[in-house]
Design a protein that fits this description.
Number of helices: 27
Number of strands: 13
Shape: extended
Strand content: 5-15%
Distance between the termini: 28 Å
Helix content: 55-70%
Radius of gyration: 43 Å
Structural class: alpha+beta
Length: 818
């Protein structure tokens, strides 16, 4: 860390295009060391043709010099190390398979164990052996579980079917005795019942009446019985009983309720129909003998086989869990190793392999300040690989714009992400994140200002910061990850909210006499009309913030509305002036005199001739205590610029100044709109005619800048932008009014009852409304409006945001998906 240059957020790091010529024997180690360093972004030369199509002249020069495009003619499947990438991808698939199996089995790893370093080839063999063993174990386990489920169903069918047959047999015997009694009385029954056919001892009846037993899903029983009745034309008898607890279906592996059925029928055609219907309904049929002794024998055999399968499954699961535990002890290390190796070979595929010289040639971007570190890492790779030839590392002249790289830390990175969400900064242009670190939380606090709510946000941010190490090592949800990433933004937002809340003198919308007594008193001793007839000022103003006596007074809304509206205008004008001033520094940095003359100067004149003048009037009115109507002054500045101001005049010479400022504003509009697009068009034509072929690093000669610049100068200065800052005032008023409603209509109303339960309910409702609406919804609203003020009103004045990020090859940035 001591060797790193000081962090500079104002301008991105100076970058250089470098070329590496690496001997084949040290290529893998060199790329590995560069991945550990994480300061070099390799460039895939497949994309170089598309990039050079925009620079026709430069491409012709390159082709004339005989420069070859690295890997441009090769598809991804023709690269040198594609087989190694495929092997790493296959190993990654196996490791993900092991991870899923460990998660499903619920195996808890004992933690990473010390293991000597293993080569990739040995790891590949080990993973193949582990996968083969685990796959075979799973296959055997699935077959055994399938057999177990079928045998369990068979056992249940045997038990329930035997009970059904036994009950039907007893019923048939009683029917037979009844028939004998009826025959003794002289009655005669011509056709016997079906149960009599079943229990008859005659061979012909036994051969004609049969039954089929099985098990079916409970939800299908009624439809199943109805279809059977229709198919056999009623020549069947259907009995069913619940199977008991839910069973696992052998086919679908789902836990469902089932019922055991026995269908009595006669004839081979009926048997065929019933079996087809059973198959259509997904019913499983099992043979059940009629002999009771055979039934008991089969039940005993099935029970014995179930016990054996259970013992085998238990032993198999123990062996499987033991194997998974041994893999789980090294899983994270192996996954990291494979992930790194795959990244290394992916990077090597971006290099061009020279068969004649047996070396790899690559190009990439790196910070100029990191060249020494990269050179040191390459030298170490040469020594460790025992190569006889060193690695050549030198800089090249670049045609395209370099990537943008800012060194950030935990505090500055969320602000940089807010800016990058609008667009990545162009190389070396002014970075808005430097000012966003302060202006963003401050503008949020201006809208959110309440030091009670600010304390709540402060406590939340302090908890996130205190648990930083613990939370950074965990997988968080999307919302919690956003909060944790912006913990320092939340910290500053809460501190500024407390500060603005003290200025507004609002603690959950309740004012307090924190800095002394009020400057106002009641008109009489009883103060009965203090909230209707107004107050009398009797001493110096309240030392800090808004006097608490304004709260609830007759002129509260008019006073606070005027204060916050004017304060919002002042902040908005300062914010936009800062953006325009930064455009001047950008133009100076890129030696762009056109932007200074035809963008910066007219914009400053236009903004300050109108809204800068309005800000001056606000300050003068505050200092002098004048009763002038600023709305009247600004409106009639356009409608009747030569009219006498009368009582609205704040200082001598104001009328003459207004006329000059109005003239300056009118002149600034065409000054902004017309000259620059024509000048850029002229420079563009001269350049491609060969008359003014200038440097590529100046903005005036950059073809990528010209369309954007022309677009900017066809846009008239937006009059409504300053009024957008009234959103600050509007959001703050909404926050204050909501706080007042919850305080007066919920908390005070509940406190008016002499009942503890009602007071507790009121307190709970007030707390819930404060947490859910004011702290969450209102803070989100203020956050989004602060975001808009920065993106549209501030960054739009100077920030192009058309660059691309510096993404170095780094093992630290690899994710689990890579």
């Amino acid at each position: 860390m001591e060797r790193l240059p000081p962090m500079d957020l104002m301008r991105s790091e100076k970058m250089t295009l470098v070329q590496l010529i690496i001997p084949a024997e040290s290529a893998h180690r060199a790329v590995t060391y560069l991945g550990q360093l994480g300061l070099l972004q390799f460039r895939d030369e497949r994309l170089k043709i598309a990039m050079l199509m925009h620079f026709t002249v430069e491409m012709n020069l390159v082709m004339a010099n005989g420069a070859s495009l690295l890997n441009a003619e090769k598809s991804p499947f023709q690269r040198t190390f594609v087989n190694q990438v495929k092997r790493c991808a296959e190993m990654s698939r196996k490791l993900r398979f092991f991870k899923d199996q460990i998660s499903k089995a619920g195996v808890v790893s004992s933690g990473p164990t010390m293991q000597p370093d293993i080569y990739l080839e040995d790891l590949e063999i080990q993973l193949a052996e582990h996968e083969h063993g685990l796959t075979e174990t799973n296959s055997n386990s699935e077959k055994l579980q399938q057999s177990y489920k079928e045998l369990l169903e068979f056992k249940i069918v045997m038990q329930k079917a035997c009970a059904i047959l036994f009950s039907n047999h007893g019923h048939a015997v009683s029917e037979e005795r009844e028939l004998e009694n009826m025959n003794s009385k002289g009655d005669y029954v011509e056709t016997p019942f079906i149960f009599q056919q079943e229990t008859s001892t005659e061979p012909a009846n036994q051969s004609s009446l049969r039954f089929i037993s099985g098990i079916i899903c409970k939800s299908k029983v009624l439809s199943f019985e109805r279809i059977l009745f229709r198919a056999t034309r009623g020549n069947m008898l259907f009995n069913h009983e619940p199977a008991g607890d839910k069973l696992t279906d052998p086919i679908s592996n789902e836990m469902i309720e089932k019922e055991v059925f026995v269908v009595f029928f006669s004839g081979e055609r009926s048997r065929t129909k019933i079996l087809k219907i059973c198959e259509a309904f997904g019913a499983h049929t099992y043979p059940v003998p009629e002999d009771i002794s055979k039934q008991r024998q089969i039940i005993n055999e099935v029970s014995s086989r179930l016990a054996d399968i259970e013992a085998t499954l238990d032993a198999g699961n123990r062996h499987r869990n033991k194997a998974l535990a041994s893999v789980g002890d090294h899983l994270e290390k192996w996954m990291d190793m494979v992930r790194r190796e795959k990244a290394v070979y992916d990077t090597l595929n971006m290099l061009n392999f020279d068969l004649t010289k047996k070396c790899l040639v690559g190009e990439g971007w790196c910070p100029i300040s990191a060249q020494a570190q990269i050179h040191e890492a390459l030298q170490r790779a040469t020594l460790d690989s025992n190569s006889q030839v060193g690695i050549i590392f030198h800089s090249l002249d670049a045609l395209e714009s370099p990537p943008t790289y800012f060194r950030t830390n935990n505090f500055t990175s969320p602000y940089q992400e807010i800016v990058d969400a609008y667009g990545v900064a162009r190389y070396q242009e002014a970075n808005p994140a430097v000012y966003t670190c302060i202006t963003f939380p401050f503008l949020f606090a201006v809208m959110f200002g309440d030091w009670g709510h600010g304390i709540c946000l402060l406590l939340g941010s302090l908890v996130l910061i205190a648990c930083e190490k613990k939370l950074s090592a965990q997988r968080l949800g999307s919302f919690m990850e956003m909060l944790f990433g912006g913990r320092y933004v939340l910290l500053l937002m809460s501190l500024f909210s407390i500060y603005c809340g003290l200025i507004y003198n609002e603690f959950f919308c309740v004012p307090f006499h924190i800095f002394g007594a009020s400057a106002y008193k009641c008109r009489d001793n009883t103060c009965s009309d203090a909230h209707t007839a107004g107050l009398i000022k009797y001493r110096d103003p309240y030392p800090f913030g808004v006097d608490p006596s304004w709260r609830g007074s007759r002129s509260e809304l008019a006073f606070l509305n005027s204060l916050k509206m004017k304060m919002s205008i002042l902040l908005g004008v300062v914010h936009m002036n800062l953006g325009i001033i930064l455009s001047y520094f950008n133009a100076c940095f890129f030696n762009n005199s056109i932007d200074i003359r035809y963008q910066f100067v007219p914009q400053m004149i236009f903004l300050n001739s109108l809204f800068g003048y309005l800000s001056l009037l606000i300050v003068v009115k505050w200092c002098t205590g004048s009763q002038a109507d600023l709305y009247h002054v600004m409106i009639y500045m356009f409608l009747s610029p030569f009219e006498n101001l009368g009582e609205n005049q704040l200082f001598w010479g104001q009328g003459v100044l207004q006329v000059f400022l109005l003239l300056f504003a009118l002149i600034a509009v065409p000054w902004m709109l017309f000259p620059k697009p024509f000048l850029l068009k002229k420079l563009h034509d001269e350049r491609f005619q060969g008359q003014a072929y200038g440097k590529l690093n100046t903005t005036e000669m950059d073809p990528e800048v010209e369309p954007d610049s022309a677009r900017q100068h066809h846009e008239e200065f937006n009059f409504s932008e300053v009024f957008v800052h009234q959103m600050i005032h509007a959001i703050d008023l909404a926050h204050s009014e909501l706080s007042t409603v919850f305080y007066e209509k919920v908390l005070l109303l509940a406190w008016g009852y002499d009942n503890l339960i009602i007071r507790l309910i009121g307190l709970l409702v007030f707390s819930f409304a404060t947490a859910s609406i004011l702290l969450m919804m209102e803070s989100l609203s203020a956050f989004l409006h602060a975001l808009r003020l920065h993106w549209v009103e501030f960054q739009n004045k100077f920030y192009h945001g058309d660059g691309y990020k510096f993404k170095p090859f780094s093992f630290a940035s690899l994710t689990d998906d890579e």
